[in-house]
UniProtKB/TrEMBL annotation:
One MF annotation (Gene Ontology) recorded for this entry: phosphatidylcholine lysophospholipase activity
Highest taxon of source: Eukaryota
Coiled coil: none
One Pfam family this sequence matches: Lipase_GDSL_2
Originating organism: Immersiella caudata
Protein name per Swiss-Prot or TrEMBL: SGNH hydrolase-type esterase domain-containing protein
Domain SGNH hydrolase-type esterase: 11-191
Keyword Hydrolase attributed: yes
């Protein structure tokens, strides 16, 4: 029997990847819902998801070194990740790092898995439910997200998380259900992220499968395979035509 295909996914980022909620008393990473969706979509595969989210970390000062630890020098027998999902920039924007600077560092982070033949799914930065200074923050976030969406490289893909989970466009009840403090999400909110990201990744994997279908086992051909025997033609209801079935008990 053929070995089951494996799918390993790394979810990398800051507190939004870690699933930070309730001031750090609860952690519910979106990876959990993502893995469930992948298992439902591909029951014939062995799915493994890993989250590396560090609250407070920034793209500019911490992401590169951490990503390198997830992709150490390859050793014989090591299993790498097939996909790496990257979400980062929220803390950098809060520290007033320029969008162009954040984007430049994100490219360095993305390049690490790409060089190891891991496909990258970059997520745009979701908006924060904070009114104070919203116009200026939105402009900087939108600039960063446009840079992310415009990036092109082999193996690189983007999912617009910002558009999928908009804070201010949601109803008051949905804001209370999905957001914890205006920046972080509730467990239900992280499940929503996992669902949205999961649907995007499933589509990409289905497209990948369609482009690279598994090889079919070649049928062994024997002499006279296409020959039609006399017993195979005629009227099957007639006793002098077709096959005759004899039961063992009739011979006794």
């Amino acid at each position: 029997m053929a070995a089951r295909q494996k799918l390993r996914v790394l979810c990398f980022g800051d507190s939004l990847t870690a699933g930070y909620a309730s001031m750090g008393c609860v952690y519910h990473p979106y990876r959990l819902k993502l893995e469930h969706m992948l298992e439902m979509a591909f029951p014939d595969m062995d799915i493994e998801t890993v989250d590396d989210g560090r609250p407070g970390d920034t793209v500019k000062f911490g992401f590169l070194k951490r990503m390198q630890t997830n992709y150490p020098p390859r050793k014989k027998g090591d299993e790498s990740y097939n996909w790496t999902i990257v979400l980062g920039g929220t803390n950098d924007l809060a520290l007033r790092v320029k969008p162009e600077d954040i984007f430049a560092h994100l490219q360095e982070v993305w390049d690490i898995p790409l060089r190891r033949k891991s496909k990258v799914l970059a997520l745009t930065v979701p908006e924060a439910g904070i009114e104070n200074g919203r116009e200026r923050m939105d402009a900087r976030r939108n600039k960063l997200n446009e840079l992310i969406k415009g990036y092109k490289k082999e193996g690189f893909h983007v999912f617009d998380l910002n558009a999928a989970v908009p804070f201010f466009a949601m109803s008051k009840s949905d804001q209370e259900a999905f957001w914890d403090d205006g920046v972080h999400f509730t467990p239900d909110g992280y499940n929503l992220i996992g669902k949205e990201v999961g649907m995007s990744l499933v589509k990409l994997l289905e497209k990948e499968r369609a482009a690279n279908p598994p090889p079919t086992k070649k049928r062994r051909v024997f002499r006279d395979d296409d020959k039609v025997f006399e017993e195979e033609v005629g009227d099957p209801t007639s006793l002098d035509q077709g096959y005759v079935v004899v039961r063992r008990k009739d011979l006794n």
